[in-house]
Every structure is written in C-alpha cells, then in structure tokens.
Design a protein that fits this description.
This protein is of the alpha/beta class. It folds into two domains: 3-78 and 152-240, Rossmann fold; 84-151, no CATH class. It has helices at residues 43-50, 72-76, 94-102, 111-119, 135-147, 165-182, 193-199, 226-240; strands spanning 3-13, 19-28, 32-36, 58-63, 66-67, 79-82, 153-157, 185-190, 202-207, 210-216. Strands 6-7-8-3-9-10 form a six-stranded mixed sheet, with helices on both faces. A four-stranded antiparallel sheet has the order 2-1-4-5.
C-alpha cells in the first residue's frame, strides 16, 4: 500500500515545555486516519509541522515521498489543509476568499468554487462578507478552501469545531464520500471519539505530546471500539506514569 504521509521521529518542543516528542506515523493512500487526544495533547503542533507552519526540532516528514523541509513545493502540491490559526479575510465575501486562493492554482476553473461551496452547504452565503460569519460558517468555508484545489491528501485540524449537529453530520458524510469515491486520503485531529468511530480506518492516540497507542478497525479486539481502545491507552499511560 502506498505511503502518503510518513513521519519519522519528529520532536517539537516550545519554551513552556509543551509540544510533541518522538512521533512516528504512516498514513496510506485512501485512508481516513484519526489523531485522537484531548485539548493540549499536541495535535495542532503536529499538523503545523506536517505543513511547515512550524519546523520540528528533529525528525523528518515525507508527503508522497518528498521531504517536506527540503522539497516543500513538491510535497505540498496536492495537499489541502484546514489548520487552526489560519484565517480568512474578513472584508471579502466567501466567494472572493476562495477566488483569491484559486489564483494560486492556474489549473483550477472558477466553477470549482461553486462546487466546493455547495459541498459544505455555503452556496447561499457566497456573497456575504466573512466578518458576519459565525464560527461554524467560517469552519465550513475553511473546509471548502481545503478541498478547492482537488487535493489527493487533506489535513484537517479539529475540522468540526463550531459546527452544530447537522453540520457535523454533513461533514462526516462528505469526508466518507470523498475517501470512498474519489480516493482522497485524510488525516484529521479531533477530541471527539464518536467522530473517529464514524469516519476513521485507523487512529493514533496522542497524550501529552506522545503517541500512546495506534490501531485500525480491523485490528481491534473482538467487541472493542475505538472508544474502549482510547480508554485502555489512557489507563495504561496513567499506570506507567
């Protein structure tokens, strides 16, 4: 199976001691891979390292075989991202924000903007300025931006933050459809176990900057769920300190 993402012994520590340590992960083509952990576990730091929004202290990251640090443009060419801290331009409309992004990709036709806005349920708000948007509406727009350039690999950091129940269900349906029908690979971080249960083929448990467990649905023990696997990993972590 082709490796889309390979993370080798990546460490990133901040002055306050938080961050990630010795992360090793592989995500294969067509998978929906979940990174599960509480707030502050290091999920966003890892996502930012993957797309070079911050540089690891040590270790290497490869996307489709390209070293992200040394071959940035080739590595990120077919990648869509939704990362915390990246904001839209408030004085532009939803459509204008996506149009601005589309100019970075000459091969993308403008009708693609209409398509992704429809996917995320924002077509009726396309001519409204971002400054009037709720958190959930902004999150839908950011997802549209992540999908705009027809990526083969999509990185989503807490993608359902701010979404209501209907929005979360719409998001989950869209991700499952793109993975199954288009072969798009996803890695998503979340603290919501039910999201992982519904969407993910594999999951890694992140706690205090370290991976403390990893499993696929196929490898779970009989009658075990990702939720019970998560609880077992946390319990073992506490027992071992």
């Amino acid at each position: 199976m082709q490796k889309i993402l390979e993370i080798q012994n990546v460490t990133k520590r901040y002055k306050n001691g938080r961050g990630i340590e010795s992360i090793n992960l592989t995500v294969n083509q067509g998978e929906v891979f979940g990174l599960l952990g509480p707030n502050g576990a290091g999920k966003t730091t890892l996502m930012k390292c993957i797309v070079s929004l911050c540089q690891p202290d040590s270790g290497q990251i490869f996307i489709q075989g390209y070293n992200v640090r040394e071959q940035f443009e080739k590595a990120l060419k077919s990648v869509g991202t939704l990362i915390s801290g990246v904001e839209a331009i408030d004085y532009l409309t939803a459509y204008e924000n996506l149009l601005l992004i589309s100019r970075l990709y000459p091969e993308i036709e403008t009708h693609r903007i209409e398509t992704v806005l429809e996917w995320v349920g924002m077509e009726q708000h396309k001519n409204e300025k971002i400054k009037s948007f709720s958190t959930g509406m902004r999150q839908r727009l950011y997802l549209a931006a992540a999908l705009l350039a027809k990526p083969s690999f999509v990185i989503l950091d807490e993608p359902t933050n701010g979404l209501d129940i209907e929005g979360k269900l719409d998001f989950q349906h869209l991700i499952a459809k793109l993975a199954k029908e288009e072969g798009v690979t996803f890695i998503l971080s979340t603290h919501l176990i039910d999201e992982v249960e519904r969407l993910c083929d594999r999951v890694a448990i992140l706690s205090k900057g370290k991976i403390i467990g990893e499993s696929s649905k196929n490898d779970l023990e009989q009658n075990q769920t990702f939720e019970s696997f998560y609880i077992d990993c946390i319990k073992k972590r506490k027992e071992t300190g």
